[in-house]
Predict the 3D structure of the following.
Amino acid sequence: MKIYLNGAMVEEQEARISVFDHGLLYGDGVFEGIRAYHGRVFRLEEHIARLYQSAKAIDLRIPVSPEDMTGTVVATCRANALRDGYIRLVVTRGVGTLGLNPYLCTEPQVIVIAGAIQLYPKDLYEKGLALVTVGTLRNHAEAVNPRIKSLNYLNNVLAKIEAINAGVMECILLNAQGYVAEASGDNVFVVRGDALLTPPAWCGALAGITREVVMELGAGQGLRVREEVLSRYDLYTADEVFLTGTAAEIIGAVQIDRRTIGDGTPGPVTRRLSAAFSDLTRQSGTPIA
Ligand code: PXG
């Protein structure tokens, strides 16, 4: 596999980062997870825009322009003859001292990996996921803002550990007020009648690219789409609940904290949106070839 590293395409064995990189020492950096479908990169502009916003928020200057970064993502896919897969774009703070000060770091490190993606087993999309809400609260928005897609994922990892130890694969994190924020690596939606609801970013959610696409598709299907503050009550009593993310796409949640959601299978709205999403991945995106 060829990796893009700071301006060069190198073999993966040669793609190395210093042990003094603050991305490693402090989780100081930002990233994006992007999908390629049928020879096209899905929603690339939106992912690049979010990367630069995340970087801005942590006062990290990315040493290349957004336009060049877009070209680099496509070039890395081409170098690996990737048509369907997963692209990980990482910008670290770079090499620094054994101290927090980011301004002593020399040059941010830019990494693009175009590889395969680890997906949920296919039958889970038919059967739906079981979830639990966990005790680990989503980071407070004024501590580490969840809109920043940073390399510091311990909040999410701790939540995921709780989910796995509870015997399920994914969880829902609540914010410090007790309201629904998001899953450990996905956004959350509730279907209630003809309403399609998702928590606003200020409740502790990443402004997910898939979330945005699903809100557009939902509006196109005549659903009343809106951001709403949601509690666990809203999850338990929903007609349908589903998660969205670049890796998961759209996946139904059929059990939450042992309550059965709807009739216990992914509902009609979830299935209609999944079909529309799948169509969209066939029809749009930045061409690789
Ligand atoms: N919330 C969090 C905390 C995420 O990390 C999402 C929501 C969904 O956002 P998008 O823009 O993907 O719709 C994410 C996305 C991985 C991986 O390798 C993680 C994500 C995406 C792709 C791969 O774990 N997280």
Observations:
- Helices lie at 22-26, 44-57, 66-79, 122-127, 154-165, 209-220, 232-236, 268-283.
- DSSP finds eight helices and 16 strands in the chain.
- Residues 33, 156, 182, 185-187, 206, 208-211, 244-247 surround PXG (CB under 6 Å).
- The radius of gyration is 19 Å.
